[in-house]
């Protein structure tokens, strides 16, 4: 039976090809010269100091610093399990941390020292990744899945940002993977997207102090911003939906932060095979598949970016027109106040958040007397538009008389108010307003 020998040959061939592609085929020091992550296929569109950034980028003013930020998406995949088969002594990894998986010995040593540390429970909604991290079934499994760090803009796996999860998506695992990736990059600004970022970012600097010294970095130089991916954001409490939203943050474009999710469908196809493999074979196989995914992305990058650029030009024009239309409908005093609040909050997030609704429905516009006469607060843009929208529909339903919009009311809102809705939908909309 030569099947086992054939599988070993395949692993060795994949390993040699990886070293060759990394430019190590004629290195005088041989494999000893290979550093962590050096055999990975890099994202050419992400900022890489010394390769695609201009001189003096690290001294750029605040107004342009966002251009050199790295967007990373953090997630876990629980389909990529591994049964309790073989061991690292009998089946070591040939790449040994030189691609996407972190170096296993250091990783396991750190986990052995901190795996018993209890994890704080979520103060947001009941995040399963937070509250159920210790409850994940691991019977017969050595790894319940993998945690990964991806490029959030171009959907590629990042170097030394992948590692096994022993029992759920615990902070101790994800911290190691994220900090390993950050310390391996010379970029100074990072935008981190994680579906539980609202909880995970708490006490993150305290947890950094407990990391191995090789994962420490100067937190004064490297700046981290935390976001929740757009698809996951609506499941969070209202405060998180404004504080951790890409939509309300400066310098992030139209990033959705869901890059990791789109890559799982590709890698899940090998989950059945890798589940039965030994530790080294599995890591090398997944590393090889991650390189294949990244390479395909690189070959399509020109076409993909051109398509996105064309869409961006069209959408930017449309959004600019709608914004101009909306601003004409707002009194100058409110517009100036809102702009100053937004700019102050963008500079310092501890300031009053202008995107958190302070009045969810305008009682004066709807002719509803407020139970507290001293209740005087600024109106948000959403509340302003919603109030006129509700009033217009109520007038149309009750009297069939065309609703007269205030002077300067935007055509965008007018079009919304002219759309008929079932009466049940109107009642639902009005019922959601906070009257007290």
Description:
This protein has 436 residues and is of the alpha/beta class. 42% of the residues lie in helices and 9% in strands. The strands form 2 sheets. A 5-stranded mixed β-sheet has the order 5-4-1-6-7, sandwiched between helices. Strands 2-3 form a two-stranded antiparallel sheet. β4 and β5 form a beta hairpin. Residues 360-381 and 406-436 have low confidence and may be disordered.
Distance between the termini: 78 Å
| Overall mean confidence score, pLDDT | 82
Number of strands: 7
Strand content: 5-15%
Topology readout:
Layout: H1 3-21, H2 62-65, E1 70-77, E2 82-83, H3 104-114, H4 128-131, E3 141-143, E4 145-151, E5 157-165, H5 171-183, E6 189-194, H6 197-200, H7 204-209, E7 223-227, H8 230-233, H9 238-243, H10 259-267, H11 271-274, H12 279-299, H13 301-328, H14 332-347, H15 381-399, H16 411-417, H17 423-431
Parallel strand pairs: 1-6, 6-7
Antiparallel strand pairs: 1-4, 2-3, 4-5
List keywords for this structure.
5-stranded mixed beta sheet, 436 residues, 42% helix, alpha/beta, single chain, disordered C terminus
How would you concisely characterize the structure shown here?
The chain is α/β, with parallel strands linked by helices and 436 residues long. Helices cover 42% and strands 9% of the residues. The strands form 2 sheets. A 5-stranded mixed sheet has the order 5-4-1-6-7, sandwiched between helices. Strands 2-3 form a two-stranded antiparallel sheet.
């Amino acid at each position: 039976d030569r099947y086992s020998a054939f599988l070993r040959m395949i692993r060795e061939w994949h390993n040699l090809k990886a070293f060759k592609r990394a430019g190590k085929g004629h290195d005088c020091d041989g494999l000893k010269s290979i550093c962590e992550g050096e055999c990975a296929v890099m994202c050419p569109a992400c900022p890489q100091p010394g390769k695609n950034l201009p001189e003096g980028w690290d001294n750029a003013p605040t107004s342009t610093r966002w251009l050199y930020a790295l967007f990373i998406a953090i997630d876990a995949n629980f389909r990529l399990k591994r049964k309790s088969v073989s061991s690292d002594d009998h089946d070591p990894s040939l790449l040994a941390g030189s691609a996407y998986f972190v170096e296993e010995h250091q990783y396991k040593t750190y986990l052995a020292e901190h795996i018993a540390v209890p994890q704080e429970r979520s103060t947001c909604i009941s995040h399963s990744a937070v509250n159920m991290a210790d409850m994940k079934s691991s019977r017969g499994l050595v790894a319940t899945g993998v945690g990964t760090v991806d490029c959030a803009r171009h959907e590629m796996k990042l170097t030394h940002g992948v590692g096994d999860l022993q029992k759920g998506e615990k902070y101790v695992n994800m911290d190691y993977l994220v900090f390993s990736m950050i310390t391996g990059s010379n970029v100074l600004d990072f935008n981190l997207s994680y579906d539980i970022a609202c909880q995970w970012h708490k006490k993150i600097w305290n947890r950094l102090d407990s990391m191995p010294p090789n994962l420490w970095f100067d937190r004064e130089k490297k700046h981290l911003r935390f976001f929740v991916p757009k698809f996951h954001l609506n499941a969070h409490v209202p405060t998180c939906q404004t504080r951790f939203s890409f939509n309300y943050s400066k310098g992030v474009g139209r990033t959705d932060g869901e890059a990791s999710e789109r890559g799982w469908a590709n890698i899940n196809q090998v989950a059945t095979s890798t589940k039965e493999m030994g530790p080294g074979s599995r890591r090398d196989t997944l590393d090889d598949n991650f390189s294949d995914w990244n390479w395909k992305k690189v070959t399509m990058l020109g076409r993909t970016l051109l398509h996105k650029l064309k869409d961006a030009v069209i959408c930017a024009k449309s959004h600019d027109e709608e914004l101009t239309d909306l601003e004409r409908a707002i009194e100058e005093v409110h517009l100036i106040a809102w702009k100053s609040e937004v700019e102050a909050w963008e500079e310092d997030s501890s300031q009053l958040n202008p995107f958190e609704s302070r009045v969810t429905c305008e009682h004066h516009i709807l002719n509803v007397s407020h139970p507290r006469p001293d209740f005087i607060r600024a109106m948000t843009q959403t509340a302003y538009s919603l109030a006129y929208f509700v009033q217009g529909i109520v007038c149309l339903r009750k009297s069939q008389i065309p609703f007269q919009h205030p002077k300067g009311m935007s055509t965008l809102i007018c079009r919304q108010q002219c759309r008929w809705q079932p009466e049940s939908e109107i009642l639902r909309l009005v019922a959601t307003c906070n009257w007290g």
